[in-house]
Amino acid sequence: MAKWGEGDPRWIVEERADATNVNNWHWTERDASNWSMDKLKTLFLAVRVQNEEGKCEVTEVNKLDGEASINNRKGKLIFFYEWSIKLNWTEFTQGMILPTLNGESVDPTGQPALKTEERKAKSAPSKTQARPVGVKIPTCKITLRDTFLTSPEELYRVFTTQELVQAFTHAPAMLEADKGGKFHLVDGNVTGEFTDLVPEKHIVMKWRFKSWPEGHFATITLTFSDKNGETELCMEGRGIPAPEEERTRQGWQRYYFEGIKQTFGYGARLF
Predict the structure, then answer these.
(1) pTM over 0.70
(2) Is 95 helix (H, G, I), strand (E, B) or coil?
């Protein structure tokens, strides 16, 4: 410790008649709650995430309770804060189709909402046939990966040959393994369309369970990788309805991956 009168003059503390806090040596505190509240609202309402599946954005700061303060001691800033925050948000993804009248929304009772001009004129709804528009539903992504004791060529054939598909699903199937070709599997409980096929490399398809919202399809991508005579298969599913995530994952694991291995022996190693 420096002797009295020595040392850095910035940190010399002495009694002052005017009570000046020299160089912020003593603890000071300032309430920053109001400023922080306005700043947090501005930041949250600017949050928006978007990708190829859709977008999600914060629409309202529903709850913002708490406090914040800024403190100074020996010229060092110290911050304290505690907040309880609730946000309202909206997710937009490609989803199920619901009918509307002339492109207008439909209220919960099923009656079409009329435009302001139509209400004023009390005109009858147009007889034009209703046009469907997309209504958004929450979706998710799933990924499965496994190794099959066969070549990419043979495993690709399993997914694109009708007789082989019927063999591992143990049910009638109909498929056209071409771009734009349709497929109906497991007595029509699984349907879809092939959108891209590269032999031995990958298969991309629109895919859905019968129980999903009408008109909603997930995008399934199967990627085949050669691993020294074996094949690593990666399945990626995008646009899966959120409530169907676990069911879809288990269905692919059981009826596709395990079904193929058990039917064709692609899971047994011979020594």
Answers:
(1) no
(2) coil
Amino acid, res. 86? K
Q: Which has more pLDDT, 63 or 27?
A: 63
The Cβ of residue 182 has, within 10 Å, a number of other Cβ atoms equal to 14
Per DSSP, helices labelled H in the chain are 33-45, 116-121, 152-160, 162-169, 245-251, 259-264
Amino acid identity for residue 268 in this structure: A
Q: Per DSSP, which regions of 32-135 are E strands?
A: 48-51, 54-73, 76-93, 97-100, 131-134
With the CA atoms of 153, 158, 162 and 167 taken in that order, what torsion angle do they form, in degrees rounded to the nearest 10? 150
110 CB-contact burial (10 Å; exposed 0-12 / middle 13-18 / buried 19+): exposed
Quick one: which H or E segment has residue 208?
strand 202-209
Q: Which of 151, 150, 172 is nearest to 162 (CA)?
A: 172
Residue 71 exposure: Cα atoms within 13 Å on the Cβ side: 9
Q: What are 196's strand-pairing partners?
A: 204
Instruction: Look at residue 71 in the predicted model and tell me its pLDDT.
Output: 79
192 torsion bin: left (phi>0), alpha (psi -120 to 50), beta (else): left
* DSSP single-letter state for residue 123: P
| pLDDT tens string 144-179 | 999 999 999 999 999 999 999 999 999 999 999 999
- 266 exposure class (CB count in 10 Å sphere: 0-12, 13-18, 19+): buried
